[in-house]
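Meet today's protein:

…
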Amino acid sequence: MTGKNIQLSEELHSYLLKVSLRESAVLKELRQETSKLDMSVMQIAPEQGQFMTMLARLIKAKKAIEIGVFTGYSSLCLAAGLCKEGGLIACDISEEWTDIAKKYWAKAGLTEMIDLKLAPALETLDKLISDGLQNSFDISFIDADKVNYWNYFERVLALIRPGGLIVIDNVLWSGKVLESNSSDDDTKAIIEFNTKVHQDDRVDISMLPIADGLTLLHKK
């Protein structure tokens, strides 16, 4: 049997959003503001954000880690899926971008739930590990510098509880993952990450063609 994936035209994608997206006014406003930035391509797709909210709710997540905040859309989506007593640790290094994020976190009433760590994410993750927080988080989203994807994964894997989820963004990398001889460091890093995690028996894996590619990893 030959596998087939439907190709999404702009019209079909618009239909998908029309009949499935339930985007809050705050999320929509944030997405529109972010679209005006030079780096707007870093914004996750709204249907991806909604999917992440559902994932967090399905596993009844309380504690989450996000690596790569940008303007905070994914943070809002993750936090919205957490239990009321839950919390999200959000890692980024840009004060400019996260200032936008904080404005919308406040508008959504989720400021108290989100703990922004404005520092290199590896430092934050290592500190969480040294503080003895292994196996205590329920879900994580990784969407930061690609050359450190494996380093982020290894640390997050230690922090996520058995049965928890790790969600990895940009795993199809606009199709550049097919360029096996690429000299681009980000492309090479994504290709290497995809290959290594596919062979890693510490996790169950499912790669989905949502937006720029989304890999779900279930910690055994």
